[in-house]
Write a structure and sequence with these properties.
alpha+beta, Arc Repressor Mutant, subunit A, three-stranded antiparallel β-sheet, 15 helices, globular
């Protein structure tokens, strides 16, 4: 699913106010964005009139990736294996800008069979099976979120401190939500995730009440400007102003193909695929992620990981819909800079 076009040679910096946010909230009354479609791999927003004025962006590496996502997007969690492999194989050629999309403003809608948080639980359990990624939908029964805006704003606050650590912070939030059934809308959980990823929790809280809100509003505006209607949406851009769009959760080959269309000279880099090297870079992996990154067949990957648990090399967090294996929580600074 690709779209190829030239971007217009213009650049704008946006500011968004509460009236615009309220307008976007009101538009959600016509569709339920939490009904992510595993078949298409998309968590889709309601249809709305979209301004499609395109922009040019400074590209420091041959390919810039604009990734529109949301902390509670199950389809975005589903493409973690593809994104992690993309960073390992094409990290020298790509830089990724993470933008928040505002998936769940609030519960002021009733559509698609979902009118309250508890309605999401079964849907998430099904998504877990489809993506082969652990998602425990019981969070919507035990400690449901009212909005994805607070963790989205927290991510923007994390970016103000360190963009690479912000990516680790997002991963931590998602593990809390999808596996630990923690409500990541709560400030206490947000600050705990900040601590776990070596961010300054006090600074994060201060920025969440200030500059980070403005940055989140700018992300919402940018999403509308580029016609983003669902997550994940990933734009691949080059210095000539050309772009490729991959919409929804797609096989790895489609993301790779987009890079080569934008930058034909892109070379795939070999990386060490033994378990210790992979866990030194990404200190938590699901069985599917480990399979995708190591090349070990999925039918065998879980057995290999469990053997490493038995030998005390890894720890395992089990859920009703899968597991996560971890190798400590400290990542060397040079690996954070080079692989996020």
């Amino acid at each position: 699913m690709y779209h190829h076009k030239k971007l217009l040679p213009s650049y704008h910096k946006w500011h968004f106010n509460s009236k615009n946010i309220d307008k976007m909230k009101n538009e959600t009354t016509f569709i339920n964005p939490l009904l992510c479609d595993p078949e298409t791999g998309i968590c889709e927003l309601p249809a709305a009139e979209v301004a499609r004025t395109a922009e040019t962006y400074k590209v420091n590496k041959p390919v810039k990736i604009l990734y529109f996502t949301d902390p509670i997007c199950s389809s975005c969690w589903g493409i973690e294996p593809q994104l992690r492999k993309l960073k390992l194989e094409y990290g020298d050629n790509i830089e990724i800008d993470y933008h928040m999309g505002g998936l769940l403003p609030d519960w002021s809608y009733n559509s698609g069979g979902i009118s309250k948080p508890s309605d999401v639980a079964h849907h998430w359990d099904e998504a877990s099976s489809y993506y082969d990624m652990p998602i425990d939908g019981d969070v919507w029964l035990e400690d449901p979120l009212n909005s994805s805006y607070p963790p989205s704003i927290a991510f923007k606050a994390a970016q103000l401190q360190d963009k690479n650590k912000a990516v680790l912070f997002m991963r931590e939030l998602r593990e809390m939500l999808f596996l630990q059934k923690k409500n990541i809308e709560k400030l206490s959980n947000i600050l705990l995730a900040a601590e776990h990823t070596s961010l300054n929790p006090d600074q994060l809280r201060e920025d969440m009440n200030g500059r980070a809100k403005e940055l989140f509003e700018e992300d919402l505006r940018l999403a509308r400007q580029l016609g983003v209607r669902g997550f994940p949406t990933i734009f691949f851009l080059n210095n000539s102003g050309e772009r490729e769009l991959v919409y929804g959760s797609r096989p790895y080959a489609e993301y790779e193909k987009a890079i080569h269309k934008i930058y034909p000279a892109a070379l795939k880099k070999a990386y060490p695929a033994d378990w210790k090297s992979l866990f030194s870079i990404y200190n938590s992996l699901t069985a599917k992620e480990f399979s995708v990154l190591s090349g070990i067949p999925r039918a065998e990957s879980e057995q290999v990981l469990d053997q490493l648990v038995e030998s005390k090399d890894l720890e395992k967090l089990s859920t009703k819909n899968g597991a996560l294996w971890t190798y400590g929580r400290s990542v060397p600074a040079e690996q954070v800079r080079g692989n996020q």
